[in-house]
From TrEMBL:
This is Saccharopine dehydrogenase family protein. The lineage of its organism: Bacteria, Pseudomonadati, Pseudomonadota, Alphaproteobacteria, Sphingomonadales. It holds the Pfam family Sacchrp_dh_C. It comes from the Bacteria. InterPro entries: NAD(P)-bd_dom_sf (IPR036291), Sacchrp_dh-like_C (IPR032095), Sacchrp_dh_NADP-bd (IPR005097). Residues 4-137 form the Saccharopine dehydrogenase NADP binding domain. It comes from Sphingobium algorifonticola. Residues 141-388 form the Saccharopine dehydrogenase-like C-terminal domain.
Length: 401
């Protein structure tokens, strides 16, 4: 029975508080705070209608450490779940340290003016969280999050060591729009247009954005093109599973998405540096976000499924083996349950589960942790129980590419 404060009332925040309300034995008291209180109130209404649970709402600018600390002091939660944007991570961690409260998020800190996706800013908080006796759990979404736990689950139960790991993220959903992103457009486009990087033989290998393509037959989705990308869990997994020789991340994109993105990039609309417009500085990517559909609005029209998983090759009792572990999530089912499409659902459910791990004491400790540093079993059990069932199978051979 614990109080939780969730910050960020977007698609992910909405799914997380719906699922928390469905588990009121763990989350006895829920407050949802965000920049615009009307978004929190709309989510609270939906939670009440779907689950019968009343949640509290509040307005906060989470960039303002003192304002967030004052909110935490008023609400008195045991844990703050940060589902705002990566820009707010450090400010919310500071507010947690100020008030003596545990912290959790789903995406690593990003400075507004650089697309870096690096953990060092948050890992630098290690000593302060340890000395305060508090836990900071980083990246409890799907990727990072479930994909990291999948890796440790394979290592615990199927392989003695992992030599190569490939994370495959497929969204086979169709939202019926010419161009839209399934989570925050600014973060999504920064990620997709970044230089691709993977870890191989002790070094990062860089390739131009979206320059490496492979096709893969995803169960319940079909054959899709996927592209080599950088993704933040590569850094934490290669740190915490140091035996991994090669680790890569792949994401599927349709041709229409890529064509729109190419044009937007060519005309400068994805830039994150300020440009002067009618005497005022604007960031083109932020303006683009303002004209694109809100990810939360896509749920009503999105059909199809996501399929995200890990393929690991390693040895078991001296024999080389390859295992594939994955989850399939249906957009329409996710929408029927929570009013949000599967990309928000596949992030919001693990956010609820990560929070449950900390609040029940299944995971914990003083310091800053990534998902793969904990026992995967209780988290994996909750995935099966709360809408993200997974499967494992042995493949005949390692990936051929
Ligand atoms: P949205 O943009 O839909 O929601 C973000 C919410 O945070 C909005 O309600 C926004 O308010 C609020 N917010 C923004 N700035 C502030 C601030 N300064 N103070 C308070 N609230 C603020 O994003 P998503 O829900 O799609 O994503 C949420 C997080 O989840 C992001 O960090 C994203 O990177 C991460 N994510 C992680 C994934 C994973 O698998 N690990 C996958 C997908 C997303 P307003 O509505 O007023 O703009």
């Amino acid at each position: 029975m614990s109080k939780v404060l969730v910050i960020g009332a977007g698609g992910v925040g909405s799914v997380a508080v719906h699922k928390m309300a469905m588990n009121s034995n763990i989350f006895s008291d829920i407050t949802l705070a965000s920049r615009r209180i009307e978004k929190c109130d709309a989510t609270a209404e939906s939670v009440k209608a779907r689950t019968g649970v009343t949640i509290a709402t509040a307005q906060v600018d989470a960039d303002d450490i003192d304002a967030t600390a004052a909110l935490i002091a008023r609400v008195q939660p045991k844990l703050v779940v940060n589902l705002a944007l990566p820009y707010q991570d450090l400010a919310i961690m500071e507010a947690c340290l100020k008030t003596g409260v545990h912290y959790m998020d789903t995406a690593n800190y990003e400075p507004r003016d650089e697309a870096k996706f690096e953990y060092h800013w948050q890992w630098a908080y290690q000593d302060r969280f340890r000395e305060a006796g508090l836990t900071a759990l980083l990246g409890s979404g799907f990727d990072p999050g479930v994909t990291s736990v999948f890796a440790t689950y394979l290592k615990k139960h199927y392989l003695d060591t992992i030599e190569t790991l490939d994370i495959l993220d497929c969204n086979g959903g169709d939202h019926g729009q010419h161009f839209a992103t399934n989570f925050n457009p600014e973060i999504n486009i920064r990620e997709v247009t970044a230089v691709a990087r993977h870890w191989e033989n002790g070094a990062w290998v860089e390739t131009p954005p979206l320059s490496h393509k492979q096709s893969f037959d995803f169960e319940q989705v079909g054959v899709k093109n996927m592209y080599l990308m950088y993704h933040e869990e590569l850094e934490s997994l290669k740190t915490h599973l140091p035996e991994i020789r090669r680790i890569r991340f792949w994401m599927t994109f349709g041709d229409a998405y890529l064509k729109h993105l190419e044009v937007l990039q060519n005309v400068g609309m994805t830039r994150i540096d300020p440009v002067l417009y009618e005497g005022k500085e604007i960031i083109p990517l932020q303006f683009l976000k303002a004209v694109l559909p809100e990810p939360a609005s896509l749920g009503v029209t999105t059909k199809g499924k996501t399929n995200i998983g890990d393929i690991a090759t390693g040895t078991k009792d001296g024999v080389q083996k390859t295992f594939y572990i994955w989850n399939v999530c249906d957009h329409e089912e996710a929408y029927a349950e929570t009013g949000n499409q599967a990309v928000s659902y596949t992030t919001g459910v693990p956010a609820m589960i990560g929070a449950a791990m900390l609040l029940t004491g299944a995971w914990g400790g003083a310091g800053v942790f990534n998902m793969e540093q904990f026992d995967p079993d209780p988290f994996m059990a909750m995935l099966n129980e709360h809408g993200l069932p997974w499967q494992v199978k042995e493949l005949d051979a390692p990936l051929a590419f």
